Amino acid sequence: MRILVVGATGTIGKAVVEEMKDRAEIICASRSKADIKVDITSVESIKQMFKEVGEIDALVSAAGGVHYTSLETLTPELNQIAVQSKLLGQINLVLLGLPYIKDNGSITLITGVLMDDPIKTGASAAMANGGVHAFVKAAAIDMPRGIRINSVSPTILEESFEDYGSMFEGFEPVPVKRVALAYKKSILGAHTGKTFYVY
Ligand SMILES: NC(=O)c1ccc[n+]([C@@H]2O[C@H](COP(=O)([O-])OP(=O)(O)OC[C@H]3O[C@@H](n4cnc5c(N)ncnc54)[C@H](OP(=O)(O)O)[C@@H]3O)[C@@H](O)[C@H]2O)c1
């Protein structure tokens, strides 16, 4: 089994790699430190990545930038960060990656708790999460060749709490291992069109 992990050097990506490394050949991609360089905000870069990587059994995304700021200071330009990266970046991974995914393969994207349990400054992130969530649900019934598609929606992670915890008052953080297990279920299981909530 060959798994392409986009965002493989991040907190979630690293945990997914660790969880799956004994079960598959893992190909790690990100903008800077991974073996395969890709910027998901660029269609050309995504095309180049898939050309380089070739056929895979599973596409995993643990990448997607968003900008946190109050609604009054959220400009159209700042909102584009989440649109171009977390929303369209991940959707373009699916659209451009489909021909490279083997029959009965799988796709797993990332969303997050803010689409369900909002915080101030989180509207742009919530928009991207909700868009990816809806796309996955609808795309699942239109997937060719038995390919499955799911998303994982984590709450704030224990591992990220030091950096972002002050924005998430009252949230109970979860260990990243639980998120990696949700990806594992999506990759090795039978579900499609599902959101794996890790709350
Ligand atoms: N951490 C949490 O508590 C938490 C909770 C819920 C949801 N999430 C969501 O989960 C996702 C990953 O979070 P994380 O905490 O693991 O983030 P992270 O530690 O910052 O890692 C992000 C990963 O994605 C890559 N990346 C970022 N932008 C990219 C781009 N444009 N193209 C290709 N690769 C890119 C990064 O590498 P390069 O910088 O080298 O590209 C890195 O490998 C985010 O969308 C986040 O909103 C996180």
Automatic annotation (TrEMBL):
Residues spanning the signal sequence = none
Q: Which UniProt keywords apply?
A: Oxidoreductase
Molecular function GO labels: oxidoreductase activity
| InterPro entries with a match to the protein in the record | NAD(P)-bd_dom_sf, SDR_DHRS6-like, SDR_fam
Which Pfam family would be a valid example here?
adh_short_C2
- Name the source's superkingdom: Bacteria
List the SUPFAM superfamilies hit by this protein, alphabetically. Answer: NAD(P)-binding Rossmann-fold domains
Which Gene3D superfamilies does UniProt cross-reference here? NAD(P)-binding Rossmann-like Domain (3.40.50.720)
According to its UniProt record, which protein family does this protein belong to? Belongs to the short-chain dehydrogenases/reductases (SDR) family.
- Do you know which PANTHER family this protein is assigned to? DIHYDROANTICAPSIN 7-DEHYDROGENASE
What is the protein named?
NAD(P)-dependent dehydrogenase (Short-subunit alcohol dehydrogenase family)
